[in-house]
Amino acid sequence: METRTIGTSDLEVSVVSLGSWLTYSGGIERDQTVACTRAAFDAGITFFDTANVYGRGAAETAWGEILKEYDRDSYVLATKVFFPMSDTDRGLSAAQIAKQVDASLERLQTDHIDLYQCHRYDSTVPLEETLEALGEVVRSGKARYLGFSEWTPEQIEAALEVGPSVGFPGFVSSQPQYSLLWRAPEEEVFPLTLAHDISHVVWSPLAEGVLSGKYKPGEAPAAGTRAASPEMSTFIKDRLDDATLEAVQRLVPIAEGAGLSMPQLALAWVLRRGELASAIIGASRPEQVHQNAEAAGVSLDDDVLAAIDEALGDVPVTGTQLAPGASAGILRR
User: Fold this and answer.
1) Rounded to the nearest 10 degrees, what angle do helices 302-312 and 262-271 cross at?
2) Mean pLDDT per 10-residue segment, the chain (333 residues)
3) What's the burial of 180, exposed, middle or buried (CB within 10 Å: 0-12/13-18/19+)?
4) pTM of the entire structure?
């Protein structure tokens, strides 16, 4: 398994990481969560990403119980804060950050979080207050490093400007959505963060499974897939239009010609970017974990890259937009 370092930190992580958004927050049974987590270690995955809001603590609790079986130094653990945990608990105020980091630590059964991330930007709280509180989390030893998810270029620049005045130790990571079908970060976010040594840990590199090629235009999703699951299909429905699915099917012969599965092609395409430290996968079966992990170290030649762009045509989103459902009031990864 190839590894990369996150930003200016000393966190060395596997380039393929395991996430727990929909699956381990209640989308699949507990025994599957255990099996996929163990498969991740077997495949060389050492980076695990979750959030307090996934299942309102359920995902953190599951991994707290499972990961305690492993040496704490053998993996890197990331979680996030922002979205509602109750009718009154939400956001990035100093009080909420202090409360939620302690709750996450208790559920995760650990004394520190390696990467603590702002799940979104909180426009209702002064940025200085948020950054000062995050700095205190690091100074107290509760988290080693800090990151953010889906911040706009303007929000990132504001943090870079304000941070030094409140003793903020700085961000080492950004977590945007990025895939063959969603390329918006390339335009502004990637260049900005690269200039400040902030790495990316991207989510949905397989577009919630659409890039696996298993969804066919004009056909209902098969039983057992994410799109067929009431618990996990809320957002993927936006991707199941015929134009997108037809474009994805044009990638199938390209993957076969390169000797890759569709998920491996999609992951290798994402990981070709040096700005990325890791790509987060979701998996409901151990074999998915192993297959996706094999994308690490795969290099796509120029002919394959050109064929991909030709096959997709104008389907990928390339403008500087928020990811679908990524506004502050809607839960995304």
Assistant:
1) 110
2) 96 96 68 91 96 93 93 97 94 98 97 97 97 97 98 97 95 96 94 96 92 74 52 55 86 96 96 96 91 94 95 76 40 33
3) buried
4) 0.88
Place of tokens 């890759």: 260
**Which sequence positions are flagged as catalytic?**
54
With respect to residue 320, please indicate whether it lies within any of the assigned structural domains. Answer: no
Instruction: Quote the domain boundaries for residue 110.
Output: 3-312
Residues 134, 167 contacting (CB under 8 angstroms): no
* CB-CB contact of 295 with 264 (8 Å): yes
Please indicate, yes or no, if residue 54 is contained in any of the structural domains: yes
CA neighbor of 78 nearest in space, from 231, 199, 232: 199
CA distance 333 to 203: 7
For the chain, helix (H) and strand (E) counts, in that order, are 11, 10
Question: Which two structure tokens, joined as six digits, stand for 262?
Answer: 């569709």
Answer yes or no: are the C-beta atoms of 205 and 281 closer than 8 Å: yes
> Does residue 97 sit in helix, strand or coil?
helix
CA distance 11 to 144: 9
CA atoms within 13 A on the CB side of 43: 25
CATH number at residue 17: 3.20.20.100
- Domain total in the chain: 1
- Can you list the alpha helix ranges (DSSP code H) found in 127-213? 127-139, 153-162, 189-195
Dihedrals φ, ψ of 129, to 5°?
-65, -45
Contact (Cβ atoms closer than 8 angstroms) between residue 4 and residue 47? no
Pair of tokens at residue 153: 């270029």
331 in a structural domain: no
153 belongs to a structural domain: yes
DSSP string, 257-312: HTT--HHHHHHHHHHT-TTEEEEEE--SSHHHHHHHHTTTT----HHHHHHHHHHH
Rounded distance, CA 184 to CA 176, Å?
9
